[in-house]
Amino acid sequence: xxxxxxxxxxxxxxxxxxxxxxxxxxxxxxxxxxxxxxxxxxxxxxxxxxxxxxxxxxxxxxxxxxxxxxxxxxxxxxxxxxxxxxxxxxxxxxxxxxxxxxxxxxxxxxxxxxxxxxxxxxxxxxxxxxxxxxxxxxxxxxxxxxxxxxxxxxxxxxxxxxxxxxxxxxxxxxxxxxxxxxxxxxxxxxxxxxxxxxxxxxxxxxxxxxxxxxxxxxxxxxxxxxxxxxxxxxxxxxxxxxxxxxxxxxxxxxxxxxxxxx
Amino acid sequence: xxxxxxxxxxxxxxxxxxxxxxxxxxxxxxxxxxxxxxxxxxxxxxxxxxxxxxxxxxxxxxxxxxxxxxxxxxxxxxxxxxxxxxxxxxxxxxxxxxxxxxxxxxxxxxxxxxxxxxxxxxxxxxxxxxxxxxxxxxxxxxxxxxxxxxxxxxxxxxxxxxxxxxxxxxxxxxxxxxxxxxxxxxxxxxxxxxxxxxxxxxxxxxxxxxxxxxxxxxxxxxxxxxxxxxxxxxxxxxxxxxxxxxxxxxxxxxxxxxxxxxxxxxxxxxxxxxxxxxxxxxxxxxxxxxxxxxxxxxxxxxxxxxxxxxxxxxxxxxxxxxxxxxxxxxxxxxxxxxxxxxxxxxxxxxxxxxxxxxxxxxxxxxxxxxxxxxxxxxxxxxxxxxxxxxxxxxxxxxxxxxxxxxxxxxxxxxxxxxxxxxxxxxxxxxxxxxxxxxxxxxxxxxxxxxxxxxxxxxxxxxxxxxxxxxxxxxxxxxxxxxxxxxxxxxxxxxxxxxxxxxxxxxxxxxxxxxxxxxxxxxxxxxxxxxxxxxxxxxxxxxxxxxxxxxxxxxxxxxxxxxxxxxxxxxxxxxxxxxxxxxxxxxxxxxxxxxxxxxxxxxxxxxxxxxxxxxxxxxxxxxxxxxxxxxxxxxxxxxxxxxxxxxxxxxxxxxxxxxxxxxxxxxxxxxxxxxxxxxxxxxxxxxxxxxxxxxxxxxxxxxxxxxxxxxxxxxxxxxxxxxxxxxxxxxxxxxxxxxxxxxxxxxxxxxx
Lengths: 262, 751
Hints:
The structure holds two protein chains of two kinds.
Chain A: H1 3-9, H2 15-31, H3 38-53, H4 55-60, H5 65-85, H6 103-117, H7 120-128, H8 130-152, H9 162-185, H10 204-210, H11 215-247, H12 254-261
Chain B: H1 15-18, H2 21-29, H3 37-67, H4 76-110, H5 119-138, H6 167-195, H7 208-240, H8 256-290, H9 297-311, H10 326-338, H11 340-354, H12 363-385, H13 388-394, H14 398-428, H15 434-460, H16 476-507, H17 545-550, H18 571-598, H19 612-637, H20 641-671, H21 680-711, H22 714-717, H23 722-750
Helix pairs in contact in B: 3-4, 3-5, 3-16, 4-5, 4-6, 4-8, 4-14, 5-6, 6-7, 6-18, 7-8, 7-9, 7-18, 8-9, 8-11, 8-12, 8-14, 9-11, 11-12, 12-14, 12-15, 14-15, 15-16, 18-21, 18-23, 19-20, 19-23, 20-21, 21-23
């Protein structure tokens, strides 16, 4: 198998995933009359399907730790952010969910999700067992939503102040970078399941020979993905906070100032 | 609020009345005991000037030695010592102190504050600079001469087998002391900006110099503890026979590459720690001398944060030649190139500020323009080093020397000189001579470019750096000679500058309050400002309050609302949170080192020697003490003196039990022959738990002070946030223990 054949053939049509996506779309259409922001939801679903149906999923399924990490980042940081942006601007949380909309909870869920699922035992379990994998996927989406709610909630009043948001994202970035650094420079394999892949799709030759991906390099890429591109995502979000902060200028009240000075 | 000016709250300007005239006269002499931010700022600058002379003489020696091939002016060993001392001195004892000096002097004035948030901490931080400088130079008398390991002190060269004299110990101690001082200053800066702004000075109206130094303080707080952790490990290696960074024959040795990671995880942010204050000065001076507000304030402000964040993610580009593998090289090449974006944005902003402005080409502006051009060159050569393939070729050559001197001298020093010209009138009340200033400017431009432009070509011609001499190869000789001649011009420029300063102090033209028609608050008070800084402040509605006062018919657009209230969080809580942030960096490195060395079982003793059960018992005591201190805070709020003292005493006892338990554990380990130098498990274990124990002891001291104050009735007279601050610290110490307990005691059982 060469790379092209792989990229074409490795798509799967997981009915569970498709059903979940369709349900989300139907739910959105049913719940909201104002559907101007549906484009964001479609983007979120696109990411969701890409993560779980594309060749990326095939690679993450026992072959490559780095592919698993890419999935992780997309599910935790990209899809939930896009989904939150799709909410109508007058949306408010149902009462029973409000306790979750707390900055400490949000920060802990975003950072905790990364650290928790990379404990060696859990990382292996998620690769080895389908139900654990499903739980992981759902939990990443949920925890990512809780994380982003603090800065991307539909209404200004629901968000933390922009400078607090900068600190929130800055510290989250640092905390994830530390894990990325550990993975990159760790002398041992973090996720042992990838040590001896069962070659169900006959890909091992392609990956090891053609792509030159050995175990060490694979883990290094995984760690670096978490360290560098993830930090850039946080950095973009930090810029959004600055845009929000400096952009929130009410109309200038010139005459009052003149009066004050003169 | 409709009057001419905003009257300050009572108490803010009270400094003038507290002291009698005789006492003020006394304190005018007492520079040594001063806690006034302006005097401390000047002390910083004078100290930096002293060390600048020393570091400059070292530079001259280097250039004399390299002026001709096969020179024997300096012994090779002496040369190594001199270039080590030159680098260390210029970075830690010149650039950082002078920049902190400017911040100390200017920043409180710019936000309309009376002083820094913690004046005595400020004085303490300053006095650590001369202490560190003396420690560093004392090594010369220690028998083995000055340290000769480069300013980066790469292991294993810096380890005992290769540097057996104790000069490297002095080097490490000096940097450790200086690092503590820098963190202290940074905490002070953050607390000042957060808690001491004048009415109307909202965070969005901060002058850029203040804003950028505020951001910079976070880099200092995050980066310096990383270096300090590395220095501690180096000292443990050297004094206690451990081997963090020393590879041993066979199994179980340490990792010299780890030192490089730690050093550059500090070292790269350090570049920005020096560059950002300079960016701040450029952002003040260029608009004033272009008679135009800065172009894109928001972009300059936000890109500083981007630089701060990116600076921590790219240190490995200093290590392309180490052999980290192609993957890591690729990622770091990309992220390093990204840094060019926010810095490029800034250069664009400064340039665009000048376009269409009515430029006044006085000395400060000339220095700024030269700095901008030279910094652009430095940026271009910098990007070329982000390419691993090119970096392998040029990293150890004079091309790199030229690159970082273009940043450090071509940009940072030039901007510092601009700052001296710009703010000297405020500090002394007298103008520097414009004629002498121009002389020093042109001498500096010629000298600097003569010295360092040619070094790019020397590097491409293959001349390696850190060599004490070179053979007479074609091209090398004349280029080195030109470079050395440039140093003569730079020396002349420095002498003219010092002459200018001394002359102007006595004969300079009186400056008046605002000689440059600038717009920020430091120019709203007399030159030099009175002890209490301001008697009254103009209204602050925009980023240029003095412009609004001078041009009432065309004021700047109001930023935010006109009477926007400002929120000033408590300075005690702010500072302790920032301090905790810096401590996380310190413990983070120690924990990462533990994980790194214990990922595979070490030969010899390992975690199995530890008794989880006993540890669990005294850990519970420590965790319980978090509850008792919380109860003490509650009692304080309810003004129950007795209960508060009791809860505090309980906290001290519980903390004491923990320390006792840890002492017993250590005793058991020592008895079974495990000590800090046994193997890397023991080394990392004792380092991590030992430093945690040290922090618990510091917390106990703070608690005992609190207890004493409580018994003396201090908290009854006035409620204070001091106990809350101590409480935060104590909770943090507990949280660290949660991490240590997990990593050291519990994790091995999960394998």
